[in-house]
Amino acid sequence: MSERSRTACRGYLFAAPATVYLAVFSLLPVAVAGYLSLHRWHLLKPDRPFVGLGNYAHLLRDPLFRNAIYNTIIYSAATVPLGVITALLVAMLVARPLRGVGFFRVLYYIPSVCSQVALSMVFIWIMAPEVGLINYCFGRLNEVLAATGLAALLRQTATLFGVSWSGQIDTMTDYLHRPGWAMAALVALGLWIGLGPRMIIFVAGLQNIPQELYEAAEIDGCSRWQKFRYVTIPQLAPTILFVAVTTTIAAFQLFTPVYVITKGGPQRTTDVVSYHIYREAWQKFEVGMASAQSYILFAMILVVAALQLWIMRRGLRQEVTG
Amino acid sequence: MPSYRHRVLLSLVLAAAVAGPVCDDPQRDGRTVLRVANWGSPAVESDFMRIEREIWGQFERLNPGVRLQIEQIPGYGQYAPKLIMQHVAGVAPDVISLDLSAGADFINNDLLLDLRPLIEADPEFRRSDYFENLWKICSRGERIYAVPLDFTPMMMFYNKRLFDRAGLPYPREGWTWQEFLETAQRLTVRRPEASRPSQFGYNFENWMPFWVCWLWSNGGDVLSPDGRRASGYLDGEKSAEAIQFLADLILQKKVASHPADRAALGVDFFLNGLAALDMKGHWMLIDYRARGLDVGVTTIPTNIGRPTTVIYVTGLSIMKQCKRPDLAWKYIKYATSEAVQVKRVASGLAISGNARAAAHYAGNPIEDAFLRAVEYARAPWGSRVENYAVCEDFGTEMMENILYGHSSVPQALREAAKLMDAALYQ
Predict the structure, then answer these.
(1) Distance from A20 to chain B by nearest Cα, in Å?
(2) What distance in Å separates the CA atoms of residue B426 and residue B422, rounded to the nearest whole number?
(3) CA distance B114 to chain A (A)
(4) Cβ A266–B390 below 8 Å, yes or no?
(5) B66: how many CB neighbours lie within 10 A of its CB?
(6) Exposure pattern of B23-58 as b/e (b: 16+ CB <10 Å)?
(7) Considering all CA atoms of chain A, what is the largest pairwise distance in Å, rounded to the nearest integer?
(8) Which end of chain B is more exposed for a tag (fewer CB within 10 A), N or C?
(9) H helices then E strands: how many in chain B?
(10) Cβ of A229 under 8 Å from any chain B Cβ?
(11) Of B196, B406, B426, which is closest to A267 when you measure between CB atoms?
C-alpha cells in the first residue's frame, strides 16, 4: 500500500466514527421515517398498507394539524426576531470591557444550562393566579392604588367611559389558561432560555470586528447609531444570519415547555407541531402519520431557513456593492 | 503511535462495549431472571414500597433459582407507551402490572398471554377467591388476560370534622344530586371581600377519570354501548345535564373549587381541610391517615335512583414475549395469593383483588363502603376501547374550556364528541 493510500485510509478511519454515527442515528431514521410516512402504520397493528401520499393529503385537511402549524408559525414569528434583537442588545452591553462584566455574561448564560423542565416550572409559578409573581406584583400594586386613593380615581374614570371596573387589577387571573397569555409565556420562556447561547455568539462576532473600522467611522464623524448601522450590522451580518437560522430551527422544534406547562392548551393555542407529533406517535401510536408530520415540519424548517439565507445574503451583497 | 498494550486495551474496551448488550440473556448469576414491570418511581420511599420489596425478596427466597428484576417505570402517563415500545422492540418484561383502564390497548392488540390454560392447569389456584366483577374486567370472552391484583372504585369522601362543625349529618349512601348540592352549599364558607371561599363544599379536580361518573349518575355516558362513537352520547341530553350541573357548582353557585383556585394555592383542598367533599379512590386514604384527617366514605350522588361509580382495577399479566410463562405464572399466583395480599394492601393503597384477603380488612365502615361498590361499579371505557386515553384528554380539555369560559356547555360537548369520534375511528 502506498503512503498516499495509507494516509487516505487513516483519514477515513478518523472520519468513520462520526460518519457511522451520522448514518445510523440521523440518516437511517430520516429514511425510515420517510418510508413510514408513506404507510398507514400503527405500531401495534399488523396491517400496514402503502398509502402513498395519503397521510400528507389527510394532514393538509386535518384542522388540528393545521392549527399546530399555525401555532408554530406564531411562536417562531415572535421568538426569532425578538430573540435575535434581545441577544444582540445584551451582547453589546456585555461585550464592553467593563469591570464585573463576566458576572453578567454568566448570569445571562445560566438559564441555557438549566433543565428546561425546571425553568418551565418556574414559569408556571410566575404565571400562577394570586400567588404567582405577576399576580403578586399586581396585588401589591392594588394596595398602593387603594392607599393613595388612585383606585377610586380609576374607578370613577372608568365609570365616566361607561366601564364597570373596581379600580383594582384582578389577581386571580390564571394566565396559563388565557389563550394569548399562554403563548406569550412560551415566547418569554423561549427568549430567556435561548438568550445565553445567542449572546455568546454575538459577543464573539462583536469582538471580531476590527477596531479600525470604528476609528475610521469616528474620524468620518459618524454618530453612535451610524456606527452601529454602517459598521456593526454589516460586519455582524453572517453572525446574525447564523443566529437567525439556528433560532428558527429551535423555535420550530419547541417541545419541552409545551409538554410541561400547557400540554397544548388552552383551547389548543399552544399545540405546536413537535408536541402534536409526540401525541400522534406515543399516545395514538400512529407512527406513519407522525412521520408524515415530521416530514412536513422538516420541509417547513428547510423552506424558512433557505428563505432567511437568501434574503440576508441578498442584503449582504447589496451592502457590499453599495 | 500507541503502544501494543494500548491497542490491546482499546480492543478489549470496544469488544466489551459491543458484546455487552448481546450477552444480555435471562440467566444471570446462575439464576433465571424474571422481569416484572410496575409503574411508579423506584426512588419513592413509602410503606407500600417497603412492603413490596419484602414481598419480592420472599419470592426469591422461596425460589432460590430465580432473580426478580423489578422495572419501575416512573410517570403514570408514560407507563403504557413504554411497555408498548418495549413490546415493539422485542424486549418486553415478562410480567406487567396492567392498569385495566388502559387495558384495551394491550388486550385488543394481542400483547398479552391468555391465562386461562395456566389457570385451568393449576389445581392450587381458585378463581372463586377473587371478586367475580373483576374477572369480567380482566377477561375478553373466554380469554383471561390478567389476575386481579387490586382495585378501587371512585367514592365520595367527606371530612367528618367539617360536617360536625356545620352541624350537618353525614351523607347517606344513595344520596341524590339535590342533597349533594344543598350539603355543598351549607359547607361552603365565604369571608367578606375574599376572592374565593375559605372552605369549599366540594373539591373538584379536572381530570376526566375523576368526573366521568357524574355522567353515569345522571344516566348519560361518554360513548355508545358498542364504544364506537361519542356523538349522541357525550353531547346527549343526560350527559349535558351532568356537565352543566358540575359547571354550575363551580361557576354559578361557587360551592366547588375551580381549577384556577388549585393553581393559585397549589394544594389539595380536601387534603388540607379546605373542602368538605371529594371524589377519589382508596389510594387517598394513605394521605388522609398521614394528615390525621377524619374521613368517611359514601356513594357518589345519583340522579337515577341507584348508585353508580367507576372501578379502576390493576391486574398482573404475562406479556406474549415472555419466554418462561410457567415461572411468570408462579410469580402471579404468589403475588395475588391471600397471604401475600393481606400483607400488600396493609398500606391502604388499594383493596385486594383477592376477596379472601380483602375480607381481612372488612368490618370497618370505610372498607365496607368500598367493598359494597364492587357490586355495582362499572368498568372504565379504556378497558374495552382502544385509544380511550386520547378521548379522556379531549374530555379534560372540554371541561377546561367550559370552566375558563372559552365555550358554552353544549358547544364544548359537541366539539369534544366530534374529536372523540375521529380518534375512535382511526
Answers:
(1) 15
(2) 7
(3) 18
(4) no
(5) 16
(6) eeebeeeeeebbbbbbbbeeeeeeebbebbeebbee
(7) 95
(8) N
(9) 18, 13
(10) no
(11) B406
Q: Are strands B66-73 and B31-39 parallel, antiparallel or unpaired?
A: parallel
Q: Which of A182, A155, A203 is nearest to A263 (CA)?
A: A182
Q: Which residues of A52-83 are buried (b: 16+ CB within 10 A; e: fewer)?
A: eebbbeebeebeebebbbebbbbbbebbbebb
Q: What's the angle, vertex CA A13, arms to CA A10 and CA A14, rounded to 5?
A: 90
| Furthest CA-CA distance within chain B | 89
Residue A266: asked if its preceding bond is cis (omega within 30°), the reply is yes
Question: Rg for chain B (alpha carbons), in Å?
Answer: 24
> What's at B237, amino acid-wise?
E
In which element (H, E) is residue B186 found? helix B177-187
pTM for the complete prediction?
A: 0.84
Judged by CB atoms closer than 8 Å, whether chains meet at B260 and A129 is answered as yes
Cα–Cα–Cα angle for B362, B367, B373, rounded to 5 degrees: 110
> Closest Cα to residue B345, out of B283, B280, B271?
B283
Q: What is the rounded average pLDDT for all residues in chain A? A: 90
List phi, psi (to 5°) of B146: -155, 150
**Confidence (pLDDT) at B16:** 47
Contacts of A168 by beta carbon, 8 Å cutoff, 6+ apart:
A142, A145, A146, A151
Which among B363, B374, B321, B317 has a CA at the least distance from the CA of B148?
B317
Q: Which residues of B touch A131 (CB under 8 A)?
A: 264-266
Q: Which residue of B has its CA nearest to A63?
A: B419
Nearest CA in chain A to B83: A282
Q: pLDDT tens for residues B45-66? A: 677 888 889 999 999 999 999 9
Count the residues in chain A. 322
Contact yes or no for A242/A310 (Cβ under 8 A): no
Would you give the distance in Å from CA A242 to the centre of its chain? 14
Q: Does A24 touch chain B (CB under 8 A)?
A: no
Position of cell 441578498?
Answer: A314
* 3-state class (DSSP) for residue A277: helix
Please give the grid coordinates belonging to residue A290: 407522525
Residues of chain B neighbouring A65 (CB-CB closer than 8 A): none
CA B75 – CA B41 distance, rounded (Å): 7
pLDDT in tens, B73-126: 887 778 889 999 999 999 999 999 999 998 999 999 999 999 999 999 999 999
Looking at residue A1, its pLDDT comes to: 72
Chain B residues with CB-CB distance to A under 8 A? 81, 84-85, 87-88, 105, 109, 111, 195-196, 259-261, 263-266, 387, 389-390, 393, 397, 400-401, 404, 406, 419, 423, 426
Does the pLDDT of residue B10 top 80, yes or no? no
Residue of B nearest to A282 (CA): B81
Terminal-residue alpha carbon distance, chain A: 55
Grid coordinates given for A107: 448570569
CB B420 within 8 Å of CB B232:
no
Bridge partner list, B156: B279, B298
Cβ separation B81–A179 shorter than 8 A? no
Q: Are B131 and B359 in contact (CB under 8 A)?
A: no
Lookup result for grid cell 420517510: A34
Q: What is the mean pLDDT of residues A7-15?
A: 92
A131 versus A293: the higher-pLDDT residue is A293
Q: Annotate B358-383 with b (16+ C-beta within 10 A) or e (fewer).
A: bebbeeeebbebbbbbbeebbbbbbb
| B393: amino acid identity, one letter | D
Task: Return the SS3 of B202.
Answer: strand
| Percent share of chain B, pLDDT over 70 | 92
